[in-house]
Design a protein that fits this description.
Number of strands: 3
Low-confidence stretches: none
Largest sheet: 3 strands, antiparallel
Shape: globular
Helix content: over 70%
């Protein structure tokens, strides 16, 4: 009985660690290439290193963490090529979501989407960016739910998880959210008019714009990383 209880406790602890680290990556708290400190996690969750390592294996299987031989675990890096590939697929999938949602949304769901859009209109200031990003993700989640297609939802989750390290952070760097908010308004208008084709097209263009923002972010990270590497090399040589 004791052995089983210990095993269950370790499994629960590993699950808690997976959830916490995944949320940190999704929220941009942990950035691509950042090392995951096993000792710190063990201390934070008051557990041994065993459930921490089990959690890291699960995070690696989810594509959120890279394990590097003799170096440890790191938040998965995302290349420009991966950003392009994933967002290319994402634009099609979210466009399909918008098309299906147009046909399948109930009136109460359309009103909730419009109310959310109206709330976001008051959060366009950079000071409100965190709240705006949270509601933006809810906006997209509402359309995914309204599409009522489990297979589509699963494929979207896979894509969103792959770009999780850059999705939020790239939005934080956008100076003016008015364009993105206006595109949401156009999507809602197309849905309200029952124009599924227009909703699909506008959503695809909206997601493609996010891809450009994310690629800009990756380019900045690479520039900073190269500069830091050169600086370290120079100090070592001195």
């Amino acid at each position: 009985m004791q052995i089983r209880n210990e095993g269950e406790k370790r499994t629960r602890a590993a699950a808690d660690i997976v959830t916490a680290v995944e949320q940190d990556i999704l929220a941009g708290v942990r950035l691509p290439g950042e090392r995951i400190d096993e000792s710190a996690l063990a201390e934070t969750f008051n557990v041994s290193r065993t459930p921490v390592r089990e959690a890291i294996l699960e995070l690696a299987a989810m594509g959120l963490v890279d394990q590097r031989a003799h170096r440890g675990a790191f938040v998965a890096d995302v290349t420009l090529e991966e950003i392009f590939d994933v967002y290319e697929v994402l634009a099609e999938l979210e466009g399909l979501c918008a098309r299906l949602a147009t046909r399948r949304m109930e009136a109460v769901e359309r009103r909730a989407l419009a109310d959310l859009h109206a709330e976001m209109a008051g959060l366009l200031s950079p000071d409100d960016r965190d709240r705006y990003i949270a509601l933006d993700m809810r906006f997209h989640d509402m359309l995914i739910a309204a599409a009522r297609n489990a297979a589509l939802k699963d494929h979207l989750a896979l894509c969103l998880r792959r770009i999780a390290p850059v999705r939020r952070t790239s939005m934080e760097l956008v100076r003016d959210m008015r364009l993105a908010h206006a595109e949401h308004g156009e999507i809602i208008a197309a849905i309200s008019a029952g124009d599924a084709a227009a909703a699909e097209r506008i959503m695809g263009e909206h997601v493609s714009l996010r891809a450009e923002q994310a690629k800009d972010l990756i380019a900045r990270w690479k520039t900073r990383r190269n500069a830091a590497t050169q600086s370290s090399a120079g100090q070592a040589a001195a």
